[in-house]
């Protein structure tokens, strides 16, 4: 289920958004004010934020770009004839997408998912399958599910159920050859999500630990050092090749020499 927050001025706009994003598939949090939006950002692991006219025109957009530059923003509004400067400002401030009220509701779910943090992560890490020696169909299906589900809390048993295989079979086949173990792959993805959060100055390491379900900051840092050899915040500095190399350890480094 995708969690997003919205800061909108008009009740009809909020109602239209609720209709476009049904509760069965979405967790939609409506912020009553900028301060409430800040609370939501620290209480829930959000995939994107939807803002309206007022937020885009004023200091709210400035604050979001300053404190949460990595958070996808989507502008949802009724376009008026005098909105040209607002749209130019949205482009300058790297708003991910613009949706027009009364027109784009049928495509809004796909639009939000396409620009979500999960979509960015999948696009970045899914191609790592080959480098991680995940070559057969079960390994690749598992890797795809890990990329989307690991941040919500994922264990081997639940992943095996989704893939319709026994837990022992999944663990053995996923880690076959030079591939990393299943637990190591899940930990790695959770750490990449932590790094996504910590790329925003508004988040502390304690926030990332809480939002990802780590019992303590210490456990998050220990997991980062065990998996990648760096602190949780430093995971963001690793490119894909170094992520793959550290996940595999010594098993394939010689092949890349």
Summarize it.
The protein is an alpha/beta fold and 257 residues long. The chain is 53% helix and 9% strand.
- The domain tally reads 2
Supply the number of helical segments. 15
Terminus-to-terminus distance:
42 Å
Assembly state = single chain
Shape: elongated
- Helix percent reads 40-55%
CATH topology of the largest domain: Arc Repressor Mutant, subunit A
The main sheet orders its strands as 2-1-3-4-5
**What is the CATH-assigned architecture of the largest domain?**
Orthogonal Bundle
Uncertain segments:
253-257
Indicate the structural class.
Answer: alpha/beta
Look at the structure and give the mean pLDDT. Answer: 92
CATH superfamily of the largest domain: Homeodomain-like
* Helix/strand order: EHEHEHHEHEHHHHHHHHHH
Query: How many DSSP E strands?
Result: 5
């Amino acid at each position: 289920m995708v969690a997003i927050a919205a800061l909108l001025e008009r009740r009809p706009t909020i109602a239209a958004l609720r209709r476009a994003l049904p509760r069965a598939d979405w967790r939609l949090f409506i912020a009553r004010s900028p301060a409430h939006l800040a609370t939501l950002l620290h209480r829930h692991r959000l995939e994107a934020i939807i803002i309206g006219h007022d937020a885009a025109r004023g200091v709210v957009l400035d604050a979001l770009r300053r404190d949460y530059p990595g958070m996808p923003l989507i502008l949802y509004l009724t376009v008026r004839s005098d909105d040209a400067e607002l749209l130019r400002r949205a482009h300058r401030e790297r708003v991910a997408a613009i949706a027009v009220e009364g027109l784009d509701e049928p495509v809004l779910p796909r639009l939000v998912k396409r620009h979500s943090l999960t979509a960015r992560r999948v696009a970045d890490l899914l191609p790592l399958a080959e480098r991680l020696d995940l070559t057969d169909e079960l390994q690749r299906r598992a890797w795809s599910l890990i990329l989307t589900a690991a941040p919500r809390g994922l264990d081997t048993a639940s992943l095996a159920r989704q893939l319709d295989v026994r837990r022992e079979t999944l663990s053995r086949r996923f880690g076959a050859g030079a591939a990393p173990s299943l637990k190591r792959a899940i930990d790695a993805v959770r750490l990449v999500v932590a790094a996504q959060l910590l790329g925003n100055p508004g988040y502390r390491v304690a926030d990332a630990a809480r939002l990802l379900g780590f019992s303590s900051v210490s456990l998050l840092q220990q997991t980062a050092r065990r998996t990648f050899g760096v602190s949780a915040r430093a995971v963001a500095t690793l490119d894909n090749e170094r992520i793959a190399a550290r996940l595999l350890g010594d098993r394939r480094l010689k092949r890349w020499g």
